[in-house]
Amino acid sequence: MTEEEREDAVRRARRAATAAGQEIVHLELPSWLRVLGLGAWLIVGVVVLVGIVLLLLARVTPLLIPLVLAAVLAAVLVPVVDRLQLWHVPRWLGAALVLLLGLSLVVVVAVLVILVLLDESADIWQDVATGLESASDQVDPETSRGAALGGVLRGAMRALLVGWLGSAISSVAAVLVGIVLGTFMLLFLLKDWEPLTTWAAGHVALPPRLAEQVMQGTVHAFRGYALGLTELGVANAVVVGLGALVLDVPHAGAIALVSFIGSYVPYFGAFVAGGFAVVVALGAHGLPVALTMLAIVLLANNTIQNLLEPFAFGRSLRLHPLVVLITTTAGTLLFGLMGAILAAPLTSGLLNALRLLRDAGLFDNPAPPGEAPVP
């Protein structure tokens, strides 16, 4: 083969390859497949972005949790500081007074709960031990297996208690650091709430007026949620406290106070407060009275609360009780205690923000170039 023939063969091969490539390029995929592929890549991108955000949030959790809780408490307590300022109390002094009052209430409740539990601890442990021995005897009263089973159960309870105390002690330092950070953050937020919220609204990628409306709606949701929890807490405290008085359970006032404070942690706070009431009743009068106290707690935290929730939350959150339950449970599973407290008001604030953005037309599709929008 001559040189010219070889060059001609190469040119023919190149032309054939180019024609084949053009056929591949012009291959038309079905529209549904293109849409599906684009959607799949968008979903992958969103998942990766959410994962990165969650990873970053996990790294700054010791700072983020005090900041979020301080912002929520400030949104609820700022009206009190504003009222003190109207009474000619300096802003910084009003913020300090409100902060000291809140801290004093928390300390008083914690000390009261500890004192009541210490006062009833001997009787409680005695009743628990008696119940374990009775259960052991019923398992096998004729042999020593019952006593052995009781010993195993008591040992397991001690091991669980020691493990819980060990984990609690190991996290005391982190909790103390978070409390100190949150206290200072709350003080500054109470003192400079208006300038800080104005600055935050100005640094959101929204028109200033719209950003201010979104922030005001979120703050209103948290304040309304706190008011609704207060109303439910008063109802629970009255029912549980009166039940403790009728059953002659000691420390009825402390039980009512713990029930009131526990209402600020939806569902799970009521569980802890109810457990406290039942434990005190168990230590004072034994199992029958404890079961009666449990029935009263369930009545207060289920029937009565379900009757009052639509009125307590309907005006402020505009959320169905089922939505409150689902969001609270999901928040608890994802973010623990903080998720339980913040899930419902954050959901309400998010829905309000979406409504404002939709009303402002930010979700509307822009008109194609050269085409005038439809009036």
From TrEMBL:
Keyword Lipid biosynthesis part of the UniProt annotation: no
Source taxon at top rank: Bacteria
GO cellular component, one term: plasma membrane
Bilayer topology annotation: Multi-pass membrane protein
Pfam families for the chain: AI-2E_transport
Sequence intervals crossing the membrane: 35-56, 63-81, 93-118, 161-190, 225-247, 254-273, 279-301, 322-346
Main subcellular location of this protein, as a coarse class: membrane
Keyword entries, A-Z: Cell membrane, Membrane, Transmembrane, Transmembrane helix, Transport
Keyword Transmembrane helix: yes
Subcellular location as annotated: Cell membrane
PANTHER family linked to this entry: PERMEASE PERM-RELATED, TRANSMEMBRANE PROTEIN
UniProt-recorded name of the protein: AI-2E family transporter
Species whose genome carries this gene: Nocardioides iriomotensis
